[in-house]
Amino acid sequence: MYQWRKFEFFQEKHASIPDEVSGRIGCCSSGRGKLVIGSDDGTVSFLDRGLNLNFSFQAHSSSTLFLQQLRQRNFLVTIGEDESTMCLKVFDLDKIQPEGTSTSTPDCIGILRIFTNQFPEAQITSFLVLEEAPPILLIAIGLDTGCIYAIKGDIARERITRYKLQVDNASDRSNSPVTGLGFRVDGQALQLFAVTPDSVTLFSLHNQPPRRQTLDQIGCASNGVTMSDRSELVIGRPEAVYFYEIDGRGPCWAFEGEKKFLGWFRGYLLCVISDQRSGKDTFNVYDLKNRLIAHSLGVKEVSHMLCEWGNIILIMNDKSTLCISEKDMESKLDMLFKKNLYTVAINLVQSQQADAAATAEVLRKYGDHLYSKQDYDEAMAQYIQTIGHLEPSYVIQKFLDAQRIYNLTNYLEKLHEKGVASKDHTTLLLNCYTKLKDVEKLNVFIKSEDGLGEHKFDVETAIRVCRAANYHEHAMYVAKKAGRHEWYLKILLEDLGRYDEALQYISSLEPSQAGMTVKEYGKILIEHKTEETIEILMRLCTEEGESAKKGSSSGAYLSMLPSPVDFLNIFIHHPQSLMDFLERYTRKIKDSPAQLEIHNTLLELYLSNDLNFPSMSQASNGVDLSFREKSGSSPMLKASNGKLKDVCKDKDRSERHQRGLCLLKSAWPSDLEHPLYDVDLAIILCEMNAFKEGLLYLYEKMKLYKEVIACYMQVHDHEGLIACCKRLGDSGKGGDPTLWADLLKYFGELGEDCSKEVKEVLSYIERDDILPPIIVLQTLSRNPCLTLSVIKDYISRKLEQESKLIEEDRRAIEKYQENTLAMRKEIQDLRTNARIFQLSKCTACTFTLDLPAVHFMCMHSFHQRCLGDNEKECPECAPEYRSVLEMKRNLDQNSKDQDRFFQQVKSSKDGFSVIAEYFGKGIISKTSNGTKDNSLRSGNTSTTGF
Known about the structure:
vacuole, zinc-finger, metal-binding, disordered C terminus, five-stranded mixed beta sheet, elongated, zinc
């Protein structure tokens, strides 16, 4: 005991029992915020927190010996003497009846005589009540005869059971009084400790009859018994304090001196010890876990010791009191920090179950203290215990000194083990490993895993640091295990240059992951492993193995595969490889969803004039040209090499153009209206790269015949131009005859001698009568290099044809004039002379004509009955007459449609013939003097006067 440190963790306050409490204090109890005091005059008084009297009442007529305030219900159980009879009473404190101005009496719900014939009278030495399950009470009354009277049941309803427990053997006549009792409840098990000066006994009350077990052959005197918060029996003897479990004696603490009072408060052992040498009493508060005396002071004669309101209350014989309260944790810790008692402070906060933040703060201060003493290892041990509460940067900053790298490494390892490390912590730890060159620890850190197989660090940070420190194998291990394929391949390709291994790794991935990695690192793979990379791309885009398993290559399945268009960017510096890849794909897959984009890309590759082929610049026909140039070869050799390069380029360009033309034709089959490529893009590519064949094919396919011949005109290809017109200008085959007119105009504006071509063109113009001679003459007259002999034969034939037409027109005119004169004579005859109708038969029914009859001026006669109601026109001549009237109405309508007239004049080869036709039909006629015909006007021009 003398080795234990003493501290002032408690503070005391003096007070006194009020004078209203009469008589000598015989018993005390506490609970439910009250102090209950029983006096030798039979009164019971209730005190509040300020030790002021609330009320008192007369519980017994003579004296109150024992009492206990129940916790679950507001009941008070007392034992006292009433008219020389020992009684047990139960008071309901919630039901108080006023008796006067100063006193109140609670309802007494039960009165029980303790001693009966079966339970002989003896002196009561101890008393304890256990609330089992309301309203059931278990009351134990210890006697000086070594017996315990147990009363169990509902006292208010007088439903009780009594039984007796014998502490000592019945044969032993020297019975000792029961000085202490204690209940222990462990689940369904209920035990009762009984202490006498000579023994410690345990009764198992859940057994019937109760089973007795002697735990020790020595006990203690009165007031030296209490129960700990772990349901241990604590008894005090002059030499020590002993703890008892249900199986016997447990630990003991050697505190010298007579133990007058023993108590338990919040984990502290309370002792009032009498020093026999000095005769003074001392009150000590022991912290058994931390082996310290939390408080110690000298006291007068103590009569009772209670715990209530978080205080320890000592009642002295002179009715003075001492209220002892525990200081707050902060005050206690400040006291310890001033004395540098950090270990005590740590034990204190841990024993009192303080929150983790408070514990971490104490550990931090202890670590700072050790650090200031340069005890770095021990300081780090304290800092490690603060992980999760103390900011790691606080510790890291202290140990960044290079000489403390081992301590820093240890701290960072613990951060990762507890899963609170950040990316910066991972970076710092890996840098520590690499600086120490501790490969073994690095292996453990990188390759260790928990039960779930997850890393305890930031994967990307670990990869980056290991890679920067040239620990590539470690970085690859982390990347592969974490499924970070992009990092794994980045190290393989960019740092190690192991291209074959990278390709093999990509091949082992899932198709979706493999596609993503190829997009990311395809440029490097194409640069070094072209063929192998293309093979992987073919497997990804066609899935040869998978499609064979599925037995299907439908469009729906192909749409789920990656498109070759997705990988175009990796071929940006290798167009030749891109062309090979797309060609292989198109040969394999005929109905790809990305067919349009693939064909567009191939057309760009095929039709471009210049591709940067690395192989061409380095080798040709087995000769390393670049090497010879670098070796200082002669100028003549360099010139020959340059020519050889140009020849190879021209040959390659020609081959690609031919493949491009084949693609243009094959991707636009005759049964499709639109091609499987972008026509506008194809035209632009052909024009940019001067690819005449492709441009001609596209124009002809799109029926842009004028653009076709324009291509020939640009290069002055006369033979091709005439051949093209022969093919495209035949109207019988759906061609455009106006091409010959454009061709004639071209030769007329050529400015050079092209007599042969003009003669051939004129033959086709003359054959199809495409242009009138006057237009031909005007067009060819613009070329000064052409002579009259070119068109002499053409003009003579045309003049002969015109003469024949004129003669035919003259004969037709004469015929029409003769017919007109005959018609006019007939009209005059009808107007002036009578008509004799001599028909004897009806024109309609061919029967003999009889009256009534109808005769028409057309010399047709009919029965009136054959005509019916239609007597105004001849049935025979009416259809012809109606057709003439309809024709006249149409002509009148046409005469009002000016736009149609001018459109015909404009679009006709010979506008004069259209005007003549209108004159012939009578649409254009003379108008009367002073008037104008408004039926044919164009703008402000009138056609009157014809």
